[in-house]
Design goal:
This protein is of the alpha+beta class. The protein is built from 8 helices and 18 strands. The chain has helices at residues 16-23, 56-63, 128-143, 150-164, 262-272, 279-286, 290-302, 330-337, and strands at residues 3-14, 33-37, 44-48, 68-76, 93-97, 100-107, 170-174, 179-182, 192-197, 202-204, 211-213, 223-228, 238-239, 245-249, 252-256, 277-278, 306-308, 322-325.
Length: 344
């Protein structure tokens, strides 16, 4: 089978430890490996149609700390559709749409992929993956254009579910702003995620006797998610639900078809409060520990989604610190939390 990897963080990060763990999975997926990342609005793609465990380039990537970005997408391939040994069939694939560079990777096998319509894009290779990517982008162009409201995420979810009807379909793609992660409706091969929020402490790989102190590498405001077909580290990972789409931006889980992230619950609670709201009241309303709520509040504050009342006489991490949403960010906040009630 193929395996997928993705990272999305609020600030630029290196993927050394994560990619080192992911590279090990190439031994069971010998038909190619690839990595895409966004140092800015454009993506850099590194890939080869050989096993990652025998690749000098992959080994270099796993050790090179200057490969940095907020968004990463990785793939190791075990061919099921399409010729082996060629770059054109090696993931990730890329296309430009409306001035944004999209990158896509998939695992699974789709039936009748040649019949997937694509008005605006043509596959270069002969994989079901690239055909589904071209179809997805054509649907995206016709039905969405640019993401302006929560319903656009629902529309993307519907497009992915329709593709999933043709077979096994896990995919990860990005436009350089958002990272979209979709899990097969029958939970084919699995898809898991782990949230990382500073301080990180020591992280140990599952398949390698190697441990690193991430606090030495990360800013204290750093926050984000790692997604993989199978857990790569001995942290506490969570599984995607069947047919779930999760969307990340700047290290925040801004949309899920099946759950509401804590950061979005906090953001919506602050927005819906008639006046400013203190951290201790958020703790009471959301019934979560103070340190957990406080760290998430600091992340939202760091991204200027919320602001502390200038009249406060306490620091931003004090229980009596009070916050309100930044009116200048109302558009993006409404896009993320919509008007949906929060019950969980």
């Amino acid at each position: 089978m193929c395996e997928l990897l993705a990272l999305n963080f609020g600030m630029e990060t290196s993927l050394q430890i994560t990619f080192r763990g992911f590279q090990k999975r190439g031994s069971c997926n010998p038909d190619g490996w690839g990595l895409a990342y966004y140092p800015d609005e454009s993506a850099i793609i590194i890939k080869e149609p050989i096993t990652s465990t025998q690749s000098k380039l992959a080994t270099f990537v796993s050790k090179y700390s200057e490969i940095r970005g907020k968004i990463f997408i990785g793939h190791v391939r075990k061919a099921s559709v399409g010729n082996k040994g060629c770059f054109k069939n090696t993931h990730p694939f890329t296309r430009e749409l409306d001035g944004k560079q999209f990158v896509f990777a998939h695992n699974g096998t789709l039936r009748n992929h040649d019949s997937l319509s694509s008005q605006y894009f043509t596959p270069i290779g002969d994989t079901d993956s690239e055909h589904s990517f071209c179809h997805l982008l054509s649907e995206y162009k016709d039905k969405i254009g640019s993401i302006q409201k929560r319903e656009h995420f629902d529309c993307i979810h519907s497009i992915l579910k329709a593709i999933n009807e043709r077979g096994n379909f896990n995919c990860i793609f990005s436009n350089g702003e958002y990272l979209f992660c979709y899990h097969d409706r029958d939970k084919y091969k699995g898809l898991d995620f782990v949230e990382r929020i500073a301080p990180f402490g020591h992280v140990e790989l599952v398949d390698d006797d190697w441990k690193v102190n991430l606090d030495e590498e990360k800013d204290t405001n750093q926050h984000g998610y790692v997604i993989a077909t199978k857990p790569l580290t001995k942290e506490v990972w969570k599984s995607f639900e069947s047919g779930e789409l999760i969307v990340l931006r700047n290290g925040l889980m801004v949309y899920s078809s099946h759950r509401t992230s804590l950061e979005m619950r906090i953001l919506q609670t602050i927005r819906n409060h008639p006046t400013k709201i203190e951290i201790q009241e958020l703790v009471s309303k959301l019934k979560r520990p103070f340190d957990v709520i406080c760290r998430q509040v600091q992340v939202l504050h760091h991204h200027d989604l919320i602001r502390q009342d200038s009249r406060d006489q306490v620091s931003a991490d004090h229980k009596n610190a009070s916050f309100f949403t930044n009116s200048g960010m109302n558009g993006i906040i409404s896009c993320w939390v919509g008007k949906r009630d929060i019950n969980n």
